[in-house]
């Protein structure tokens, strides 16, 4: 039980990679706060699975792009536990469109959640994180290998990797580590149908391990970064992609 007694917040964890991470942290003994914006039923299902497997969890609604919601989330954690050990910044949104179709709305929607939301969460989390605290930012291989029509989304993930390093340097003196995980092509509700046809064949051909990822492939890396096993790891952006280098289109 690498995380026994730890308190962990996982944002956007009602489904997909976030849900996989929440369940993995719970299985290793952490008490998990399952955050969701709108999918209460899915969040409750994740909580139920963690509890069924002997863990402790509860769900908290908060839109991580809204400062007031972020503050309320961490105030809830403070009121209930008074401390925090792990923050997994996972809540995100992607809008894929060519530059000819770029809108301010799509830009702000992605940056407000994918970047500002991460920063707001860290701002509130550091009030509770003590020495040996861990912040894990979920980025993407698109931060270095952008898809066609992904200019804004890829830019948000590039920002995540940069703020990860900046915050690692800022928070290191407090004993708080900050790292990011860059998932590759991963099967989630958000990517359902995206890997079909010719595109899927190209993506699969460029994946040395020969398959698309699953949330369960990403979760063990989050457990490692949350645990003392990674006590000398900070400021790193770690790919979990099955070996993908370049998307090929």
TrEMBL record:
Gene Ontology molecular function: glucose 1-dehydrogenase [NAD(P)+] activity
Keyword Oxidoreductase among record annotations: yes
EC code: 1.1.1.47
Keyword Oxidoreductase carried by entry: yes
Matching PROSITE patterns: ADH_SHORT
Pfam families registered for this protein in UniProt: adh_short_C2 (PF13561)
Keywords: Oxidoreductase
Family annotation (InterPro entries): NAD(P)-bd_dom_sf, Sc_DH/Rdtase_CS, SDR_fam
Family under the similarity heading: Belongs to the short-chain dehydrogenases/reductases (SDR) family.
PANTHER family documented for this protein: OXIDOREDUCTASE, SHORT-CHAIN DEHYDROGENASE/REDUCTASE FAMILY (AFU_ORTHOLOGUE AFUA_5G02870), SHORT-CHAIN DEHYDROGENASE_REDUCTASE FAMILY PROTEIN
Protein name (database record): Glucose 1-dehydrogenase
Originating organism: Pseudomonas karstica
Lineage of origin: Bacteria, Pseudomonadati, Pseudomonadota, Gammaproteobacteria, Pseudomonadales
């Amino acid at each position: 039980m690498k995380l026994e007694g730890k308190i962990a917040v996982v944002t956007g964890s009602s489904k997909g990679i976030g849900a996989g991470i929440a369940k993995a942290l719970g299985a290793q003994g952490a008490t998990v706060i399952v955050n969701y914006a709108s999918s209460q039923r899915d969040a409750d299902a994740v909580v139920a699975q963690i509890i069924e497997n002997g863990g402790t969890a509860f769900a908290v609604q908060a839109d991580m792009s809204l400062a007031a919601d972020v503050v309320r989330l961490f105030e809830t954690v403070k009121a209930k536990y008074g401390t925090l050990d792990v923050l997994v910044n996972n809540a995100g949104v992607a809008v894929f469109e060519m530059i000819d179709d770029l809108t301010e709305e799509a830009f702000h929607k992605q940056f407000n959640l994918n970047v500002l939301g991460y920063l707001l969460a860290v701002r509130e989390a550091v009030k509770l994180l003590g020495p040996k605290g861990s912040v894990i930012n979920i980025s993407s291989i698109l931060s270095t290998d952008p898809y066609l029509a992904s200019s804004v989304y890829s830019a948000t993930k590039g920002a995540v990797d940069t703020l990860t390093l900046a915050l690692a340097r800022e928070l290191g003196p407090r004993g708080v580590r900050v790292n990011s995980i860059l998932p590759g092509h991963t099967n989630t509700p958000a990517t359902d149908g995206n890997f079909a046809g010719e595109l899927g064949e190209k993506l699969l051909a460029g994946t040395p391990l020969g398959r698309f990822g699953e949330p369960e492939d990403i979760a063990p890396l989050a457990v490692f970064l949350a645990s003392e096993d990674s006590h000398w790891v900070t400021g790193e952006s770690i790919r979990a992609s099955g070996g993908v280098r370049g998307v090929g289109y």
